[in-house]
Amino acid sequence: MTDGWNARPAPPPAPGQPVPPGSPWWSDALADPWRDPWAPTAVVLQPARSTGGPPPEPVADPDAPRRSYTPILLICLITALLAGGLGGTLGYVFAVRGGVATGGGSQLGATAQDPPAAANRAPDSLAGVAGKVLPSVVTVRVTGAIGSGFVVSADGYVITNDHVVEGADDTMSVSFSDGSTAPAKLVGRDPQSDVAVIKVAKNGLTPVAMGDSESIAVGDPVLAFGSPLALVNTVTAGIVSAVDRPIEAGDAGTTRYYAAIQTDAAVNQGNSGGPLVNAAGQVIGVNSVIRSVGGSETEAGNIGLAFAIPINQAERVAIDIIDRGKARRTVIGAEVATGGTSTSGARLRSVEPSGPAGAAGLKAGDTVTKLDGHLLEDGTDLIALVRKYDPGTTIPVEYRRGTKTQTASVTLAADSN
Question: What mean pLDDT is predicted for residues 254-275?
Fold first, then answer.
């Protein structure tokens, strides 16, 4: 018995002997020089049997000619051209129905079903604020000059700058954002504060909303309205760059002082008297002065340094003008030295004994270094800051007498004019 691991195949037939049936050898096997007489395998050809399955795939002749791809490429190209033509046609049809086709009286722009974009602006957006304030802004036309102003009462009172209406006569008029015009007359002016009030001969006007200039902070967004260089209905944007900036300005012998709101909103000649508003659309100042590097007033232009009178001060002056015919100025009851001082602070040249400063114990020769927490550089700062307060306001002051620093509380008063 054996498992066949060392089984030997049957030897090949002897030369000349017939090959037995079923033998794996061929007739001349012994004469084949490449044979292995002891090879463990044998090649046996089995007769073909029908399995009933599909016939085997024919083997392609490698020498046969290949099929051309040209018809396929032509079909793809024609299909792409037809698709592009159909898409262009459909796009044109939809464009015509949407109202953007040209020629032949076709409609341009949005259809009637789409509201104007401006109508969708939020009320608290810059565009919303501008739309709210513009109807209350006016262009003031005086002989040989143009300025701005804003309506503060439904019956026609308008606040503007004193230097805008200087030299005004009966020909003064205003124009509104809708293009309508109306004559105006001067109610009163205060050259030292640069505030004036005019009255427009028109009722049913829309007054502005008044804000609080004491509540603003550096960095707050602002909009400036007016007619710079006669470009009416102009709105520019910026931020509050500084508050309580002491300003001394004026010409022709009139010196104006106020603690201004500084902004970088673009302001030019013609903006004077227009409103400076906060993000809520409330007026916080009256555009009045710009800083420029121009050599003359006619060359002055915006360089991002504009100044506005705080609305709290301007409103108080305007009410005085309307109610009393003239404005009261807030004073401290002392004369100060301006310019050329060697030390910081406002040096008091003289003090009225019965005035606010004298009643608080200040004397001539004292140097006021702080007013309500504001550092003072010179006498101009003291005058400008005092005028921002209402008469009767009590404020703390810090002053230097000799080598000692002292404090006092001063109750400001209105001048006697």
Answer: 94
